[in-house]
Amino acid sequence: MISVIIPTLNEGKHIGKTIDALNKVDYSDFEIIIVDGNSKDKTRDIAKKKGAIVILEKRKGIGLGRNVGVKNSKGDILLFIDADTIVPKELLKEVNEAIENGYKGGTAIVAGDTNSFTTKWLWRKPSMWWTHFTILMKRPMFATNCCFYTKELFNKLGGFNEEFPYMEDLDLSWRAGKHGNFKVLNSTVKTSDRRLQQNFIKHYIFHIASSVYFLIKHKPLYNSYKECR
User: Fold this and answer.
1) Interatomic CA distance for residues 100 and 2, integer angstroms
2) How many angstroms separate the CA atoms of 63 and 208, rounded?
3) How many alpha carbons lie under 13 Å from residue 49 in its C-beta half-sphere?
4) Which CATH code is given to the segment(s) 2-217?
5) What is the residue-level pLDDT of the chain in tens, covering all 229 positions?
6) C-alpha dist (Å) from residue 132 to 19, 83, 129, 182
7) pTM here?
8) What is the rounded distance in angstroms from the CA atom of residue 180 to the CA atom of residue 126?
9) 15 contacts: CB under 8 Å, gap ≥ 6
10) What are the DSSP calls for 119-169, one per residue?
């Protein structure tokens, strides 16, 4: 079984479409787990109506939320996506095939939900080139807008670092690289460009600086991360 784990916080505008896409996949053995950080909108109600398992987690922390989702999951494969990530119908089937073929995890091709030249060629495309390079170098770095692991490996690594306010996803994939092979699937998921649209230059500099610092110090550059939700 594949457990799809999605942390949420006031995602009423997006979570319905995300779950609808999951409910249309050509793979049946999966569950959807929403770990909600005490949303003030209708996120939990929408998710429940669409068949997701909803867990209320009032403690703060994106890594903590995802770890809580894993603890309440039944699957032996863990797929993490964001509340604004739309998956194609073949994604879960490709995830399962990758694990069956011996991969310990991986990611998909990540595209934005806008056709902006700036976001596509200065952010999304370079990010995927970097992801391929890090996998080749046995130090994978991919984000939780779409990534998957075997539960066995996830538990062996101790899950996400709950002390990290952000970059907990890159930290986990970095640590995982020592324990097997990882793959970029053929599928393309679409995730929201809303952060990039708010202030592209600021967001770009923030993540470049954070990534360089992480490579040197193996920890986040900043002690907090402002949510856009």
Assistant:
1) 12
2) 21
3) 9
4) 3.90.550.10
5) 999 999 999 999 999 999 999 999 999 999 999 999 999 999 999 999 999 999 999 999 999 999 999 999 999 999 999 999 999 999 999 999 999 999 999 999 999 888 788 888 888 899 999 999 999 999 999 999 999 999 999 999 999 999 999 999 999 999 999 999 999 999 999 998 887 777 888 888 988 899 999 999 999 998 876 654 3
6) 28, 24, 5, 10
7) 0.94
8) 24
9) 6, 8, 34, 43, 46, 47, 83
10) HIIIIIHHHHHHHHHHHHTT-----TTEEEEEHHHHHHHTSS-TT-SS-HH
Cα–Cα distance measured from residue 90 to residue 190, given in angstroms and rounded to the nearest whole number: 14
Q: Which amino acid is at 156?
A: K
| Whole-Å CA distances, 33 to 1, 61, 126, 202 | 13, 17, 31, 32
Half-sphere exposure for 90 (CA within 13 Å, toward CB): 9
Token duo for residue 109:
């091709």
Q: Are 193 and 119 in contact (CB under 8 A)?
A: yes
CA dist., res. 43 & res. 37, Å (int) = 10
Beta strand extents in the chain (DSSP E only): 2-8, 30-36, 53-56, 77-81, 85-86, 105-112, 146-150, 182-191
CA dist 39 and 37 (Å) reads 6
By the 8 A CB rule, do 75 and 1 touch? yes
In whole angstroms, give the CA distance from residue 88 to residue 24.
8
Give me 25's structure tokens: 């996949």
